[in-house]
Amino acid sequence: MFYILPFMKIYNNFVQNAPFSPSVTLFGVNLSDPYGSAGVANPFPPFAPVHPTTSSTFGLPQQFQYFNPHWSLGHTNAFNFTIEQQLASDLVFRAAYVGTQGRNLQYFQERDAAVYRAGATVSNTNGRRPLAPNYASLMEMTNDGVSNYHSAQLTMEKRFNSRFSILANYTYSKSLDNQSVDNQFTVSDPNPNDPHFNYGLSDFDTPHNLSSSGVWTLPHFNSHNRLLTAAVGGWQVAGSLAWRSGTPFNVISGQDRSLSGIALDRADLIGDPVIHSEQPRNSRISHSFNKSAFALNPLGTFGTSPRNPMRSVRVFNLDSSVQKTFGETRKLSIRCDFFNMFNNVHLNAPGLNVSSASTFGVITSAGDPRILQLAARYRF
Question: Does this model's pTM top 0.70?
Answer without folding.
Answer: yes
